[in-house]
Specification:
Layout: H1 2-6, E1 10-11, E2 17-18, H2 21-27, H3 30-46, H4 53-77, H5 79-83, H6 100-121, H7 124-145, H8 152-156, H9 163-172, H10 177-200, H11 202-208, H12 213-216, H13 219-242, H14 248-270, H15 280-306
Antiparallel strand pairs: 1-2
The protein binds protoporphyrin IX containing FE and farnesyl diphosphate.
Enzyme class: transferase
Protein name: Protoheme IX farnesyltransferase
Pathway: Porphyrin-containing compound metabolism; heme O biosynthesis; heme O from protoheme: step 1/1
Length: 308
């Protein structure tokens, strides 16, 4: 596998590595970013008012490019840490397929370009929120909190919650109750999403010296916290219905999906399995967390269109 990838890079006369375009793509964490971009798209589609389809496409492209820039700068900063973890060791920087400077230039260039383009195509409020999300993910989460505290993802997770606000602001030029409720939903969804995964990749984080919750506080505390945040997330998921911001389509979908999420989170909270290979409840919750956000955000859009 490694041999194949190494063949895709070449070296200049000065010894610098010329990375393949696939490595630049990998730097943007494309799989994670699909959901980030989807929540931004749903924020845009749920917003009242009209935006020209070309501008709408540009706005979503800017969210994708901005999120990709954030991912690239995260990998630029964490090259040494990524080399210590099985899950991340084959990324372009730790695997030696790309120079760190190229990753830095790529990340900064893409970030600046995405913010400026969004400001020019949509408005400067949307661009400012995009800039805040990039800076929040890179500086607050990656550089400051991640290596220091087990609460890193609780606070740092806010970065991933901004896209619905960006999409909404791109159309309306402001933010209001519904996009703020959607921000809260992603914010409180992030701890169960990430800690369910952290339970079965705990050894990786321990080896890399990153103070993720299962490493520093133990598995029992992590399982309890997953359950606690799921309860708050459930309240956030129902808030748009209680505040009459959405109708019965969203209400029914949110109720059913959140009930299922709660069942899976409860199973994790009472599970005492210690072998990461056999942590089926945790793997199930992690996978379902992704499906959950896709469907619930889709339901917001369908609901707003049907009851508009
Ligand atoms: C600080 C907050 C978060 C942390 C620490 C986190 C961490 C992770 C990690 C470590 C993975 C494993 C997959 C990989 O190595 O790429 C993952 C997967 C994933 N995350 Fe998160 N995540 C966070 C927030 C979010 C947010 C806000 C979204 C989207 C709204 C998201 C969407 C996804 C998706 C779609 C995957 C699956 C990717 C795949 O199929 O490989 N995550 N997350
Ligand atoms: C501009 C914008 C909308 C940005 C959103 C960026 C964002 C917060 C994305 C989702 C979170 C994410 C990729 C976490 C990975 O955590 P990690 O970096 O700890 O994971 P790793 O160990 O895989 O590097």
């Amino acid at each position: 596998m490694t041999g194949v990838i190494v063949n895709q890079t070449s070296q200049t006369a000065s010894g610098a590595v010329c990375a393949h375009w696939r490595d630049f793509l990998a730097l943007t964490k494309p799989r994670v970013m699909t959901l980030v971009v989807f929540t931004g798209l749903c924020g845009l589609l749920a917003a009242p008012g009209h935006i020209h389809p070309v501008l709408a496409f540009t706005a979503i492209l800017c969210i994708a490019l901005g999120a990709g820039a954030a991912g690239a700068l995260n990998q630029w900063h964490e090259a040494e840490i990524d080399a210590l973890m099985k899950r991340t060791a084959n990324r372009p920087l730790p695997a030696g397929r790309m120079d760190r400077q190229a990753a830095l230039h790529f990340g900064v260039g893409l970030g600046v370009f995405s913010v400026l383009l969004l400001g020019l195509a949509a408005n400067w409020l949307a661009a400012a929120i995009l800039a805040v999300s990039i800076l929040f993910y890179v500086l607050v989460y990656t550089v400051w909190l991640k290596p220091r505290t087990a609460q890193n993802i609780v606070i740092g997770g806010a970065a991933g919650a901004f896209p619905p606000l960006i999409g909404w602001a791109a159309v309306t030029g402001d933010v209001s109750a519904l996009p703020i409720a959607l921000f809260c939903l992603i914010f409180f969804w992030t701890p169960p999403h990430f800690w369910s995964l952290a339970l079965f990749v705990k050894t990786d984080y321990a080896n890399a010296g990153i103070p993720m919750l299962p490493v520093v506080a133990g598995e029992v505390t992590t399982r309890r916290q997953i359950w606690g945040y799921t309860a708050i997330m459930a309240a956030a998921a129902m808030a748009p219905v209680l505040l009459r911001l959405t109708g019965p389509i969203y209400g029914t979908t949110a109720l059913l999906l959140t009930a299922l999420f709660a069942v899976l989170a409860f199973r994790v909270s009472v599970n005492r399995e210690r072998d990461p290979e056999r942590m089926l409840a945790e793997r199930r919750l992690f996978k379902f967390s992704i499906l959950y956000l896709f469907i619930i955000f889709g339901a917001v859009v369908v609901d707003r269109w049907v009851y508009a």
